[in-house]
Fold each of these.
Amino acid sequence: MRRKEKRLLQFAGLLIAALLFLPNVGLWSLYRDRVFDNSPDTVDGPGGIPIIQGLNRMGKDAQVGRDGVRRKDWHDYEAIKRDASRSGNGEQGKAFPLSEADRVDQAYRENGFNIYVSDRISLNRSLPDIRHPNCKQKLYAERLPNTSIIIPFHNEGWSSLLRTVHSVLNRSPPQLIAEVILVDDYSDKEHLKVALEEYMVRMPKVRILRTKKREGLIRTRLLGAGAAKGEVITFLDSHCEANVNWLPPLLDRIAQNRKSIVCPMIDVIDHDNFGYETQAGDAMRGAFDWEMYYKRIPIPPELQKEDPSEPFESPVMAGGLFAVDRKWFWELGGYDTGLEIWGGEQYEISFKVWMCGGRMEDIPCSRVGHIYRKYVPYKVPGGVSLARVFTFGWREDVRVGDPMHTKKVCFDAISHNSPVTLYDCHGMKGNQLWRYRKDKSLYHPVSNSCIDSSPTERRVFMNTCDPGSPSQQWLFERTNATVLERFNRGNN
Ligand code: UD2
Ligand code: MN
């Protein structure tokens, strides 16, 4: 009898020990869950984050990384399903079939993109999921910082502005959006006044701030940033569409390193038909040329990631779309408040973050569409945008087109009687060097001749300079007499 009892006791003891120490059941598993970062069970999970197999007690979607961070699938499958079932104008990001009546100049005048088309597409339209397929499997920290979304606008179209707001609210986890701050840069369009305020009553997260005079996009963004309460601030332009699961991948990188500034991939919403597509070449690095024009250049093969859906470092951002830890933004000094109207700010913030111990990344799994305008529709007070604040000298070539001088074709002439052609700007002076003269002619030092025009034949060509000839007279807009004179003196 005593022996039997002893056996029973021994058996019970063994059972308890087994329960305590058996892998995946006992205390052992809890212990390993917390501490065994490099246990042999560790494999690479989505996004290259090592996870521990067989220890998942958080449902099929969540996992613990070796850094102890719990990660989950942030996709909103309900919303994805809802989007997939939508059909109609522009749905699934499809191009709207333009009629001749839609193509009129009037459609573009106020925004630089076709507002007639925009007005006929739902504010909640669906977009194609054009992310790299790996993005569908990625997990992000369960605990992410929330963000204020800051959208500066100046005379933005009604439907393009509202579609921006709707897309953000429709495609972001609500708990991650602290607020959406619309900052009006002294617009004079009626629809942006009371009507906008009334509309936004139904969206309690949206606040509207207004500048007291035209400030330009940089100080307008600063006004929003100063009022923001979120842990992160995310800037968007006023004509964007946030795509599926765009926000968690951005916030996750900031949660890992608060000094990271992160940019979504910027997709193209066609300014004519509103079709949604990637930019040419898709993932590229930000760069700039000697005239400080922003450029996208291919990522060199040695820097390409094995998994193209992983974040990659970016030297300079495009400017408009990025997320940054709010406190870090101010530690960096925000933006220089002396920057006027448009441009230059993307270099300032990019240089500062890299030089102050932070980093900047593009995040392929986060995609946001942006309408690249056909032309700049708004007035720039004083006639000049300070986008060129950084230009290194007087413009010595003559470029066609838009007020921002972003076009890259230049007048080019090869001899004293050749036609004047358009050619890629090479910045090497030579055939593309022109002199603006007081007699209103455009002089070409290489051939010692001037541009002449034949209105009847509709062509421009080189000819012997004749200051008295009306066909050699040109109207120079936005020239600075002092700079011009200094330039001409130096080049005589
Ligand atoms: C690009 C950037 C833009 C900004 C700009 C200047 C992207 C997609 N866009 O030009 O965000 O960085 O380069 O470097 O990266 N706005 C005002 N007040 C103004 C003028 C503009 O509030 O006086 C607003 C405007 O409504 C828009 C934003 O500022 O929301 C950017 O202006 P844009 O769309 O004309 O600039 P964009 O996209 O050509
Ligand atoms: Mn824009």
Amino acid sequence: MIVMKFGGTSVKDAESIIRVFEIVKNHNNKKFVVVSAQAGVTDKIVDLINNLKNNHIENAYDLIEQIRNQHILTAQKLKLKKSVIYELEKKIDELKNIIFALSILGELSPKSQAKLLSFGEDLSVLTIFEYFKKGYDRVKFLDSRLLIKTDNEYTSANVDFRLTKESVGKQLSKHSDYNVYLTQGFVASNKYGETTTLGRGGSDYSASVIASVIGANELKIYTDVDGIMTSDPRFIKNVKLIKRLSYDEASELAFFGAKVLHPKTITPAIEKNIPVVVLNTFNPNKSGTTIIRSKSGINIVKAIVFRKNVTIINIISNRMLGTYGFLSKVFEIFNKYCTPVDIVATSEVSISLTIDDIKNLKSIVDELRKIAKISLKRNMAIISAIGEGIRDTAGIAARFFGILRGINITMVSIGASEVNLSIVLSEKDLFKAVQLLHDEFLTDTENYDIFSHLN
Ligand code: ADP
Ligand code: ASP
Ligand code: MG
């Protein structure tokens, strides 16, 4: 069995859904198809939640009508039955009723937010299922809440692989005589059956979790670009398509900012050694990017990726000098507030570290101030060069820093993995620095075994 995941832009309207149907039909294998919400719908629901928080109920209703129009138009263009349009309308009315109830109650817990966020995928899968049924007689919709089981972190839930394997196994044996199983990405449920979600962009992760628990032969991620590029094509010029990446390279690339894959996507595939292929729904015959265990092109920089909205916390204390236990006290505080630390640099008397999630920044800083002097730097960015073995190659590090002469680099990370070399700098210098690094390492690359020019 293979798993195919189609992102928001791949299912954004009727024409795209027809393409998705063709791609699925052209694969002879038995397959699990995972779909996202239509492009922009989850953003609208997030907007809706913010409006609700600020008591702007009319704006929230406006957004619901936009969501309604988008889905009804898609359904009409796909010539779906009246009863399906009625069902979509009913679901959207349900969303409206929940919004009304929450506005009266003044309640907006993570549990309610997860429920609201799940509507995007629920509406999308319903539309796609009804369209698929017109062309396939052996397609089965399986609600992802019956498949992926998580803890109670409602809006960024952690998957329980043991329970998930059991649930998926149960559903597949109950419905064994189907060729195509269709489910929502992003949406899951806890052990009480309450809706949870896997964090923004989480449909990629849903697909890889399913691939892992069924031991799929392959995971195909269909998106709106030809595969993984040497940098973000929205901001950087002359990017190339990367044909092959190792699991380590792809994990680091996703973790350090390439939006094309959710950061957690690769881990489940690694354990079962499942190849992950990133392909373009609108150009499906291109070979895309293949991510596999084996390494290729050692000492070659494959990508320059970046992350914005990074905060540096500087922790200065003489108590660190010649003592032990200080670092663990610091990390206990981050642990307590469930805030991941991304990059760390230490000296005899100071620790600098970066965080992305500033939800609990105030509480963290208040606690850190009890043991050290603290200063903060906001609006920072991380740039990472990704490629097997690059950090072990003196020439590459020298070129990396040489090219950034004149740009103020605040932190450097030389971690244990050989795959990435990261720096932290001010956001205002970000794009200039990324373009300089990309021009230096990736513009003249003529290694067509690994890169290809876009056309
Ligand atoms: P989907 O809806 O299919 O999940 P996303 O919008 O989440 O799609 O991810 C695809 C987008 O990621 C592309 O349209 C592209 O603009 C952006 N992107 C950022 N960095 C990269 C990269 N290194 N390679 C390819 N795409 C990238
Ligand atoms: N629809 C969700 C989001 O926009 C999940 C996804 O598209 O992967 O974040
Ligand atoms: Mg995505």
